[in-house]
Write a structure and sequence with these properties.
By secondary structure, this protein is of the alpha/beta class. The chain has one domain (about 5-30, about 40-135). Helix content is about 30%, strand content about 30%. It is built from 4 helices and 7 strands. The protein has helices at about 15-30, 55-60, 65-70, 75-85, and strands at about 5, 40, 50, 90, 100-105, 115-120, 125-135. Strands 1, 2, 3, 4, 5, 6 and 7 form a 7-stranded mixed sheet that branches. Helix 1 crosses helix 3. It is globular. The termini are close together. The mean pLDDT is about 90.
């Protein structure tokens, strides 16, 4: 399995609020580049747009500690989505036949591994950034 080496570090902070403030600063920069829905252009998907619609919804469904752990990887995930050309692991969503899930793997500057999941709608070809989280397994 290939891991993309990011140039970003995990967001620092001793609690969820501090990490959230750092993530919001990064997201505000992304948001300021468009008048409509915020998005990133992905190197792997030939500069197609990756939207943030599901990320914040999905994050709010998690427990507070889980939110804190996942949000720490936000800056690394943004870097990975923008720059990674490494082929992700792709599979059909078992809960919805009309969706494909792409899982990218990355490594922070400090060699901590993480995963980024992007959902693609088969009909519209729309891609949404769903989640980022720590990746401990050696699969």
């Amino acid at each position: 399995m290939n891991f993309y080496q990011t140039k970003a570090n995990k967001l620092s902070g001793s609690n969820y609020i501090e990490v959230l403030e750092s993530a919001e600063i990064i997201f505000k920069q992304i948001k300021s580049k468009t008048k409509r829905k915020p998005y990133l252009r992905s190197a792997y998907f030939n500069k197609q747009k990756i939207f943030f619609d599901y990320f914040w919804i999905h994050l709010r469904q998690k427990r507070a500690k889980e939110r804190y752990e996942r949000l720490k990887y936000f800056s690394c995930a943004v870097d990975l989505i923008k720059n990674s050309r490494i082929v992700p692991i792709t599979k059909q969503n078992p809960n919805n036949k009309n969706e494909i899930l792409h899982r990218f793997y990355g490594q922070t500057k400090n060699k901590e591994r993480f995963a980024v999941q992007i959902k693609e709608d088969k009909k519209t070809n729309k891609k949404d950034f769903m989640s980022c989280f720590s990746w401990e397994r050696d699969n």
